[in-house]
């Protein structure tokens, strides 16, 4: 399965790189997803992270946020 065509809610995530350097290294579980953001549940509470300006590690795979900047249902149905 193409890694971009999967559901991310409920998966573990690490922010590997972000323009907002305070988010780099953030770890948690994806609780919600919109076209432009992930809501990540962490030990410190829920954080909202912009996809476009970040790189993530999900299921031990590096994913650039700008490659998945679509509504979840559109990304899952998209032809590769």
Describe this structure in words.
With 80 residues, this protein is mainly beta. The chain has a single domain, classed as Ribonuclease P/MRP, subunit p29 (SH3 type barrels), CATH 2.30.30.210. 8% of the residues lie in helices and 44% in strands. It contains one helix and six strands; from the N terminus they run ββββββα. Strands 4-3-2-1-5-6 form a six-stranded antiparallel β-sheet, with no helix packed on it. The longest helix is centred in the C-terminal third of the chain and has 6 residues, at 72-77. The radius of gyration is 12 Å and the shape is globular. The mean pLDDT is 89.
List the helices and strands and how they pair.
Elements (H helix, E strand, L loop, with lengths): L11 E7 L8 E7 L3 E6 L2 E6 L3 E5 L2 E4 L7 H6 L3
Antiparallel strand pairs: 1-2, 1-5, 2-3, 3-4, 5-6
């Amino acid at each position: 399965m193409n890694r971009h065509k999967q559901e991310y809610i409920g998966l573990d995530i690490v922010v590997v790189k972000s323009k907002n350097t305070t988010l780099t290294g953030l770890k948690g579980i994806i609780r919600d997803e919109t076209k432009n953001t992930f809501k990540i549940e962490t030990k410190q509470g829920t954080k909202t992270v912009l996809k476009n300006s970040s790189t993530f590690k999900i299921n031990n795979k590096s994913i650039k946020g700008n490659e998945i900047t679509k509504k979840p249902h559109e990304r899952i149905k998209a032809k590769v």
